[in-house]
Each structure stands twice: as structure tokens, then as C-alpha cells.
Amino acid sequence: IPRERNRNFSIIAHVDHGKSTLCDRLLQTCGVLPPNAPDQFLDGLEVERARGITVKAQTCSLLVTSETDGQNYLLNLIDTPGHVDFSYEVSRSLQACQGAVLLCDAVQGIQAQTVSTFHQAFEADLEVLCAISKVDLEHAQKEEVKRQLSVLTGVATEQVVEVSGKTGTGVQDLLQAIIQRVPPPPGSSTLPFKALLFDAKYDSRRGMVLYVAVQDGELKKGSKIFCSYSRRTHLATDIGFLYPDLSSTETIQSGQIGFVVVGAKDIRSFRVGETVFAEGGEKTGEPFPGFRPAQPMVYAGIFPEAVGDGEKLETAMQRLLLTDASVEAKRDISPVLGAGFRCGFLGLLHLDVFRQRLTSEYGVDVLATNPTVPYRLTLANGKEVVVEHAGDFPSPPQMPPKEVQEPLVTATIVCPRELTSNVQQLCVERRGEELSVEPLDNSGERVMMTWRLPLAEVITDFFDRLQALSHGFASFDYQPAGYQKVDLVKVLVRLNGDDVDALSFFALRDRASEVSRRYLERLQNLIPAQLFDIAIQAVVGGKVVAKVRIKPLRRDVVAQKILSHGHSGDPSRKAKLLERQKEGKRRLREISKVQVPPEAFVAMVKM
Length: 607
Ligand code: GDP
Ligand code: MG
Hints:
By secondary structure, this protein is of the alpha+beta class. The protein is built from 15 helices and 31 strands. The strands form seven sheets. Strands 2-3-1-4-5-6 form a six-stranded mixed sheet, sandwiched between helices. The protein has a six-stranded antiparallel barrel with strand order 7-8-14-11-10-15. Helix 7 crosses helix 8 and helix 12 runs antiparallel to helix 15. The radius of gyration is 27 Å and the shape is globular. It starts with 5 loop residues before the first strand and ends with a helix. About 0% of the residues have low confidence. The structure holds guanosine-5'-diphosphate (GDP) and magnesium ion. Guanosine-5'-diphosphate binds next to helix 1.
């Protein structure tokens, strides 16, 4: 199929608006999937099926006959991940497309991600087609939702396609609309080979599989490629198309979406958005503009739940890191949690999904510490560094930093009108700045707000609070929006005069003593009394801002106290507790001669 009859497109939607169901239906309509295929074929990972979200983008080509000219067209569908955290993955897959289908649930109407994914597609200069999904449902508000989409995108209501992934209604109309309205990919078959790398995965059987959108020229199986990011040459041992399984061919050409298998092992040496040339082509060709590797925005420590699982975690991490180049990881040793990793993620959900995959795919129970964001510090000597762990923040005798900057996000919130003031209150509490409030529908029943918020405030319990105050009727999405100055300090926890870096944390200067007081009170309740006096202090810049004391215990009550701890009637629960205590004993460490039980430590680091 020549370039002029290729169409590269994505489907973008709010989570649960029916994207996976529609994708499956498209595949089935085009004969790619047998009618009895399992639901949501493209959602391959266990965690994706379990959560009903798409984590990793997958791609598939469909052969469709045009009703207008009777010719065959190759429609390349790029399934984008469907959650707030994965906006980076969404935008990277969009670079390989010329069109996007903006899908919106005909019952729910526009939600936060409908708005934010539309903006991404718009910024990527894509032809946006609008469709409403689930039109088979009784309560579908077709006209109203079409109108909402029209206001958002400028597409006429008559042009909005009605589809149902469940019944198959409108699926042919949608395929025809894609042929009609999405332009063919740009490029030239006479220029040297040049392709965009838009995804990569490590397959234990085949090796590294690169997903590419070919702009110019052609690539033959057995030839060599050069990647602009790693600046390395690789042999293309296999190439081909995605139907949706990898199917080998001899060449891939201008306008096509395909895969290239290379003999590399480390996914980290490839970055989505980089340019793939034929060997030598980099000397004359220009890489695609605007490439930057993804930056982690949320950091957390990952430690084994059971101390003996250190090696298991190590192996699991190594394997899992091969599947996700956007996770950053370095080894870390915690005085109580043992050997683990400090990791950077694209967002909170990304962290959560990663943790869940460690458990579901590799059988390691892990503990993730309180997430933090990357702060940009200008040190006293003028040097600029990024610090995402309070332990790395300068404290006396080091000079305090000259300036600290924190990451910001632009948040889109869609909610019923009567909740506006509650949402505003929450956002103000979280140091937000209101950018706009607009009605979404004719009746003004629902509104769309945009806020600028510090990311650090969003990654705590913001989403939970929003869900609670709206009873689940608010939707939320965010995009990175630069940095701003922040008056941040490091709170050091001092146990009997010794600094315990592992317990230190970040706080805003004007909230530091209040936050510290609450933190110490919790610690006071978690550390059992011992045979001597324990003084716990919170220290900011060398000054004590809060302190508590744990009075010593008389010798004869010690044994009693330990025995009664965690007593319960349920025998299986008791057995579990005993097991845990055994583990705990092994893990119990003395910090400044104070026996800090693992539970206390765990509770503090994942407060
Ligand atoms: P995604 O999160 O956008 O991928 O959404 P899914 O495809 O996973 O669908 C979310 C839910 O909506 C699932 O429970 C689907 O069964 C249901 N659903 C999806 N499409 C339709 C449809 O056309 N009609 C009806 N009635 N339900 C649908
Ligand atoms: Mg999905």
C-alpha cells in the first residue's frame, strides 16, 4: 500500500469512555481479531486488565476498503494509554499520527481528560475527528454531548460520529471518516531512510523491538540503523508490520508504521521520540525537532516488604526496568528497610502500576516511601542541582540553598456546578491559582476549571480529597507547567541527639513547625517506650522547631508490653502477626541506641 493510502491515527479519550472496547471492535471489523477473541485484546498486561486502564501503548494495522474509491487503505491505529499520568506516553504516540479520534462517552459527556487529550492532539497539529461512544445506552445524550464536543473542538455537530464498541454501530462510518479526513503521512520514498521511534519494548524471545513511523525512504531486513539519542548503530535483524502481532516483511517504507528488531538489550539506550536513520544517514539527515527524553516527576523509594526479599526485588527490578524506559532507578540503602531502590516515575499512577507489577508479575511485595517531586536548587556556591530526596537537601554545616524551585502543573477539573466552591477551597488550600472557570453545557450544570497547582500538593491526597468531596463526580487531569520559587526547608529528625537522615522530610518554611509537631506526635506513638528516656526533635536549619519525649519504661513491664502488643482473637491473624514480628525482629535496627520497630519506620516513611 503506497504512502498516499496510509492513515496513522490514535484514539484519545477520558478513562472508561470506551476506547479499548472500540479498538477491539475495529480490529474485529477488519478481520484482524476472530469474533470470539477475549475482550480488550490490546490491553495486554495483567495490571491493565485488572485496572481497566491501558499502561503501554500498542499498535495495530487495519486494512480497510474505501466506500468512495473502492481502494484498500492501511489504517494504522496507535492505542494510547488512558490515564492522567501517562500524558507523556500519549503525546509521544501522537507524534507518529496525522489524525486523532476524540472519543467521548455519550452518557457522561466531556470529562477532564477529554479536554486535555484534545489539547495535546491540537498542539500536535493533528486532524481531530469527534465521536461519541456507547450510543447503544438508553441514557445516551447524543445531541447534548455532540454540542459539548463541538464547542470544545470547533468540529460541527453533524460531523460527530456516533459509535458503539459494544454493538458495532457506526464503526464503518468511523473507518470511512478516517480515510476521508485524516491526511496521509508526509514523507518521500526517494530520500534516505528516516523514521520516528514512538515506542520500544523488550521481548524475551525476540529481543528489543522498536516501533517506528517511517517518514522517508525504506529499510531492508539485515541492514543497519543509527539511533540519534544513543548515537549507536544496530543491526536490524527483523522488520515488519503489526497485525497486531509482529509479522515479518523484507522492507518497511515511507509512510508505514512498523517494527524493527535490534540486537540490543538495554531499553534505556532508546528514547521515544528520537530519530532512526539508516547507518550513515545521520551525517546528512536532520533528526526530528523537539525531541527531549521524558523527565520523571514523582520519586519514591522502593523496598522489599520482607527483608529476605532483597535479591528477589533486585531481579524483578532489572526485568521490569527493561520494559519501561521512563522509570529511573538507582540503588539505595535504608537503615531500617534494607537494600532497595530510589526511583523516578512520570506520575503517581505510574508509580502505583510499577509497584503492582512487581507484585503481580514477579511476586515481590514492596513498600513505596512517601512520594516526592524533583526540586531545582541553586546552591550557595551558585551550582544548580536537582534534589528529590530530603536526605540530599543541604543542612548545617552546609549553607542553605540560595533558591529552591518546585514543579507546577496545569490541572483541568470538570465537576457539577454546585461543587465549584468546594473544589476552589481545596485548590486554594493546596496553594493553587485559578486560571479559568467555564460552563460546559447549555444548562450550566457542569463546569470546567483550570488551575495552576504545585505538583507536590497534587501527589499527596489531592485526588482522593477531590473524589471524596465530589462523591466521584469530578474528573481531573494535569500537565506539567514549569517551575516556581518555593520557600522549602528540610526537617531533620533527631533521635537522642543524633540526626536520622532516613526520617528527614521536606516542608514549606511557614508550615514546618506545625507539620513537624504532627509528625513527632505520630512517631511518639509508634516508638515503644524503652529502658531510657528518648528525646525526639525536629530541626530546621539547626533550630529545634518541635520536640517530644518518650518516658522510660520500668524493666518489669517491658516483657508484658511486648507480649500484649498486637493481640487479637482471630488465630490466623495472630499467626500472621507472629510471623510479621519474627520478620520485624530481624529487621529491627538500633538507631542511636533507640530500638525503632520497622512498623514505626514504615509508618513514617509512607505517612
Ligand atoms: P477505556 O478505559 O476507554 O479503554 O474504556 P473501556 O473500553 O475499558 O470501557 C469502559 C467500560 O465501558 C467497560 O465496562 C465497557 O464494557 C463499557 N463500554 C465500552 N464501550 C461500550 C459501548 O459501546 N456500549 C456499552 N453499553 N458499554 C460500553
Ligand atoms: Mg482502555
